[in-house]
Amino acid sequence: MKEKMLRMLGDAISEVFETMFFLSPTPLGQGEIKGCREGGGREVAVQIETEDQACRIVLVLPASVLRTMSVNMLGRSEEGDSWETILDTAREAANMVAGAFLTRLDSGFRRPLGVPEVLSAFDGSSKEWILYAANVDGETVRSYLLMRDAQEGLAA
Amino acid sequence: MGLQVLIVDDSAVMRSVLKKVVSLSGYDVSRFFDAGNGQEALDVLSREWIDLILLDVHMPVMDGLALLRRMQGSELFKTIPTVMVTTEASQEAIQEALQLGARAHVRKPFQPETIRKILETILGDEYERKDAPDVGGCDF
Questions:
Q1: Which of A58, A55, A45, A47 is nearest to A132 (CA)?
Q2: Residue A85 DSSP class
Q3: Whether residue A52 has pLDDT greater than 90
Q4: What is the number of CB-based contacts under 8 A between chain A and chain B?
Q5: Whether this model's pTM surpasses 0.95
């Protein structure tokens, strides 16, 4: 079940990054993931959950990758460079990843999403989280998933 | 005369992207209007002529479905072609939007080509078109 969720989360991230940001994430293997549970440099963590809180996703993005995402999406470096724009890009990326993930679940599990929120701090060390990590532009992008009633959502 | 397009999304980045995609779709756009939520959209609608709306669902203050409900109650607004552009995965919410008068639904992430085709279907040849560039493989 965990493998299936990881695959769906990875597919959702690839779809969003490739379509909207022109970046190709390369999934990290289990051995590589163990070393990246805590990030190194400056990062932005964005949380989004379904309105009923059954599914929660936290996307952790290195600032350098976010800047590239922002510039790629807008096509102009001067507009994509402001911190406000970079945070907006992070929220929109988390929003799209969560939406793309939910569409991969059984249709009965596709709950409405809430509004994405930039977290001031995030601790992803709990074993409850399912972690997907990928290399993007030489940096590690991490996505944490927590899902209630996961079996129901994976019926598809 | 060119189109007057209202883009309703709480993300300024997404509004910029959508402006670019509509601009590349080949239609002559005379002016874009921005709104960060449904209430701001109603304010724009009350003072400007709008030919097309691109509308998100999840927004603070007033969401996209609430805006559609308000538009349905107005003879002036309910016929404005509206395209939902959203991450919404719930089929019920999408169906509700279509029942409330939305003409089409585009799921984010999207290819520019998807939006161009929908605009062609909705607007047809009613509006003036520039020499349409091929947006199939373009950046935003």
A1: A58
A2: H
A3: no
A4: 71
A5: no
Rounded distance, CA B55 to CA B62, Å?
Answer: 12
User: From the candidates A19, A67, A105, which should be mutated to test the interface with B, based on the most B CB atoms within 10 A?
Assistant: A19
pLDDT tier at A113 (50, 70, 90 boundaries)? confident
Amino acid A144 reads Y
- Mind telling me how many Å the CA of A14 is from chain B's nearest CA? 11
Residues of B in Cβ contact (< 8 Å) with A98: 87
Q: Is residue A26 left, alpha or beta, with left meaning phi > 0 and alpha meaning psi from -120 to 50? A: beta
What is the number of alpha carbons within 13 Å of residue A11 lying toward its C-beta?
12
Tell me the pLDDT tens digit for each residue of B86-106: 998 778 888 999 999 999 999
Match 């932005």 to its residue by tokens.
A44
Among candidates A97, A63, A61, which has minimal Cα distance to A83?
A63
Collapsing DSSP to helix, strand or coil, A48 comes out as: strand
Q: Give the contacts of A145 (CB within 8 A, at least 6 positions apart).
A: A5, A9, A55, A56, A57, A101, A129, A130, A131, A132
Instruction: Spell out the domains of chain B, with CATH numbers in brackets.
Output: 3-123 (3.40.50.2300)
Question: Judging by DSSP bridges, how do beta strands B52-55 and B3-8 pair with one another?
Answer: parallel
Short-list A57, A51, A58, A59, CA closest to A110: A51
B36 contacts B63 by C-beta, under 8 angstroms: no
CA distances (Å), origin B28, targets A101, B35, B84? 36, 21, 21
* Residues whose CB falls within 8 Å of the CB of residue A111, separated by 6 or more in sequence, listed in order: A50, A51, A52, A54, A55, A102, B89, B90
A74 with B16: Cβ contact below 8 A: yes
Residue type, position A138, single letter: G
Closest CA to A98 of A43, A16, A1, A6: A16
